[in-house]
Q: What sequence folds into this?
């Protein structure tokens, strides 16, 4: 016993170092696993509050751009509204269901990262506003990411510029599906992998979210095809996609709350009897 | 002794604040950030309490991780740097560094420069290796380490020259 205590006292400095190293390494490994239980995240009172303060200062510098963005979106929505051909001919049940399917929560990006391989955003609405993990986040131009962790007033979002993110997407005109991933190289481009060779793809085609995901509604814009590669190993297409969004400059965002999500997940969870 | 403690606490808070408010948002060329907050570990008194340095480095790193959403990456790199600091001292200043009064925040000499260089490279390489965590991005890790190291060293030297206590 005496010797054990002696050993601990003699090597206390080294043991402390090892302890701290193990703690930080385990936190690191946890943060890299997909289903992570992140202990240290920026969705807490201290860092969320600080980022909120910085952002309220920063916001003044980009007010003009933000306003233009919102005005553009208003114009687009107006044009959709005015261009509805005949309001009486729309099947009523469908339109009501369609509106009812999703709820939108407005929020603001208070911290944006895009310089590492695993990028996260921090937004200023949390569980108090009804934000839950795995909700989709979009803005007027296209998709941004998926909610990861929430606290009372803040939430972190896995950006599409995160090598861990994988989102179902399709080619707008042909309905061929693929997975949207990021190779970590450029902030303006993401990749659509596993697109079947049967699909007719052309440079400039639009990519939108697919209907297989319960996180995003169908047909939200992502980007346009920039380059087309064929994967030699799998014989699938890999498409380089130029994003509609400038991920380095984000302001107001919308969080999509799908009402069907719980029902679909519960259905899929049920064991086969 | 008391004033060195105060100096260190002030350095801790100021460097952390500057890192979070200014240097984390630089994004030079899109993805290169300097990390001059490790000056806290570099400038810690040579004869100061080792255990206190280890613990405060860990806290420094954890706070950085909280703001960067990066798990425990900064904490691991800082703890590693704090632990191997005496070894780097031995390498740069010779064996008897403890008996000389080595002062880092002074005019730049080759010894001081080599100390800062080795410290920054160790910290940054650990940081980016853990941050990326995939070996198929090894070239990107080297590139990031190289560019960030240049940027950090430049800023460290500038900061040392600015906050150098001119009296004493």
A:
């Amino acid at each position: 016993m005496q010797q054990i205590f002696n050993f601990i006292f003699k090597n206390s400095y080294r043991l402390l170092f090892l302890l701290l190293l193990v703690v930080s390494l385990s936190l690191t490994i946890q943060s890299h696993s997909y289903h992570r239980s992140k202990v240290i995240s920026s969705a807490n009172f201290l860092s969320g509050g600080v980022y909120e303060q910085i952002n309220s200062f920063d916001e003044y510098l980009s007010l003009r751009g933000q306003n233009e963005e919102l005005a553009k979106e208003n114009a687009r929505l107006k044009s959709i509204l005015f261009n509805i051909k005949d309001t009486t001919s729309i099947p009523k049940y469908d339109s009501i269901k369609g509106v009812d399917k999703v709820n939108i929560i407005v929020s603001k990006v208070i911290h944006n990262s895009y310089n590492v391989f695993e990028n996260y955003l921090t937004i200023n609405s949390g569980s108090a506003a009804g934000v839950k993990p795995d909700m989709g986040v979009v803005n007027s131009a296209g998709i941004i990411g998926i909610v990861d962790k929430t606290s009372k007033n803040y939430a972190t979002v896995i950006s599409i510029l995160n090598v861990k993110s994988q989102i179902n997407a399709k080619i707008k005109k042909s309905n061929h599906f693929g997975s949207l991933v990021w190779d970590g190289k450029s902030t303006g481009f993401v990749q659509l992998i596993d697109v079947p060779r049967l699909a007719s793809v052309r440079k400039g085609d639009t990519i939108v979210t697919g209907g297989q995901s319960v996180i995003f509604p169908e047909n939200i814009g992502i980007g346009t095809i920039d380059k087309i590669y064929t994967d030699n190993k799998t014989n699938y297409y890999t498409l380089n996609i130029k994003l509609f969004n400038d991920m380095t400059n984000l302001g107001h965002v919308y969080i999509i709350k799908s009402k069907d999500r719980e029902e679909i997940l519960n259905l899929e969870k049920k064991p086969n009897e | 002794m008391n004033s060195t403690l105060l100096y260190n606490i002030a350095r801790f808070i100021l460097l952390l604040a500057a890192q979070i408010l200014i240097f984390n948002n630089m994004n030079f060329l899109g993805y290169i950030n300097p990390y001059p907050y490790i000056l806290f570990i570099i400038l810690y008194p040579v004869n100061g309490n080792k255990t206190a340095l280890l613990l405060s480095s860990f806290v420094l790193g954890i706070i950085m991780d909280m703001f960067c959403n990066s798990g425990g990456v900064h904490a691991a790199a800082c703890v590693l740097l704090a632990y191997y600091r005496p070894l780097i001292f031995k390498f740069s200043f010779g064996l008897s560094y403890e008996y000389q009064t080595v002062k880092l925040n002074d005019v730049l000499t080759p010894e001081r420069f080599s100390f800062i260089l080795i410290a920054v490279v160790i910290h940054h390489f650990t940081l980016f290796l853990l941050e990326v965590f995939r070996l198929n991005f090894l070239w990107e890790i080297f590139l990031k380490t190289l560019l960030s190291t240049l940027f950090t060293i430049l800023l460290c030297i500038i900061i040392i020259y600015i906050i150098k206590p001119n009296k004493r």
Observations:
- The CA atoms of residues 77 and 126 of chain B lie 5 Å apart.
- Chain B touches chain A at residues 20-21, 27, 30-33, 50-51, 54-55, 58, 61-62, 65-73, 75-76, 79-80, 83, 130-134, 137, 140 (CB under 8 Å).
- The domain at 2-163 of chain B is CATH 1.10.1760 (Arp2/3 complex 21 kDa subunit ARPC3).
